[in-house]
Design a protein that fits this description.
Helix content: 25-40%
Strand content: 15-25%
Radius of gyration: 24 Å
Number of strands: 20
Distance between the termini: 20 Å
Shape: globular
Number of helices: 21
Structural class: alpha/beta
Length: 629
Amino acid sequence: MFRSKGALVFVLATVSILLRNTDAKNIGIAFGGGGFKSVADQTALTAGLLAELMRRDEALREDDSISSPLASSELYKEVKSLSTISGGSWFTSYLVYSINYRRMVEEMAKQAATGADKGIICGTFYESYGKRFDALRQNTITTNDIQRVFLLLEDLVSPLATVPLLGMFVDNIKSSLNNVVFFSQIGSTDGGPQSNWFNVTNTILGDDINQMTLGSEVQEWSKGKSWNIITSTTTMSNVGFLPKDAAFLAPLTTISIPFRSNIWANGSSGKKLSYSAEDSADSADGGDLVGAPFVPVLFSVVLGNEGSPPAPLPTKVDSVAKKLSLIYSLIGRRRLNDFFNPFRWLRPRPTLFNTTVGPGIEPLKDINKSFAAMPIVGPVAASSAAIGFTSVLPDTITDVLTKVLKFNPNVGFACKGKRADPSLSFLTGLEILNKLWSKNDLNRKDFNAVTENGVCNYLDGGATDPFGIATALASGADEIFCVNAIPDLVSVRGVHFGYNPLSGDSPVAALAPCFIFDRNNITSEETHIFDVEAGRTVKEMKLETFTVNTKKNDYFGIEEGRTVTLHVFSALSTEMSTGAIVAGSVEFKEIGDYIEDIMSALVFPENKEIVDKILMALGTLNGSVVTNE
């Protein structure tokens, strides 16, 4: 409960006495994916809500004996689980494990609560966090041959930005081109030419986190909560192009395409090592699992628990991965006449040798063990490895990455062998892949090292659960607060309520195996729009609330008929495209301005009713707010 300085509180500005919600709710937060846009939105939301609580309780902003206003505010006290994807996993890493980041958020909140001048909050964010990324970009992006190739591509697509409906799409392409070069350079191995996503994540997390494990000391506010980090893996060699849920597209749902994941490739020699993952169990046991191009793989830990209890998520979540066997193939150079065939990527290369390993590629073999000893960077790298999708694309993409950028997009995980230990699995995978990618060729011994350790690719959790909502449900939550950082790119409706292109849903949503709500059976629905006139950089802020019943989903072990309340917070920038913020390809001072304006809207008196709804959803308020004059 909040502390105050006595009677002075009653003669100062309006103060709300917050009454704790005693209902036995199971509240989960879902910090969705979206790179640096996720970091921005989730930082702004946390700091903004804390600022509003500081405005209501003077002690939180002025009592020096309070070591952590975030913990003392009890903002997230009633939250039982944190389910995170991609940039949401970055943000959670910062707020849970970094004392510096937590203090930055608290300082920003205090500045907003006390009415600091415009630019102060932005400056705090930039100096404490954003400045190093601008410095990295300035130091790494140089006009070399690699950069010229991508600048040329940018020049080619730029004229399309003036075409109606294409402007945002082109901006996102340009941001992605710039960002691929940036990440390929900051992720270089020991300063050399070869780079990988694991090292990129190390750089993003920073020195105060990248040496920690999931069981390391955490900030007080997070103790006792379960942190569920969502990643994905590819599945069968032939998969349905559309999910069975897309019933209105029934004639197309039977279309299948060859589907393999590249572990290593050499554009010069034409060789590549790839695998498919196939269901080794009777398909009759698979329910609706057949046909999904990606399936979820989850890492979880109870934060701040020195006893390192077992991973808290139900084992049903990994039921698909337990059935999968890996079929490895070393693929040779294309035949000469294939180079003149425009459809050559549809024709398989010759296989030099192959091996089957499995079944079972789940990350934790013994459910009585814990991920506590696992370095944080491993699952967070896998959770955010959006560039890992290139491993399943046509060989031309692989050739660009290997020949031009010398970039390994994969986050390897060793799920077999003597070293298949939760604390070593990512490091073993990294060691094997780094060795492969530093060589110009691959021999049988190298092939055996991969297969004996069961090295496979884990990639961005957005492939299966872009917002963390399905995982929050799987962990038992019946009230979920979600932050969707990319509402103009992928909608919660499109992903979780059933894909419908006529409603503007992104095609990406059709591939995610997480249809968990029935769009035709929504009990209640509300949309609240924030007043953002005070901030020039925020185009829109809104809170959506749904009361819905679940559909059966075998991927996440979700049963049918659960009643769930879902809250979705989202914000959009007026001056920066979502793709540009996601990629961090804009000046971080601009991102700081955007964060400051979101926070300003959250403490704006006209938005108090919506903010109270958020606080009630989080369990911070119970619906009874008493105002003291």
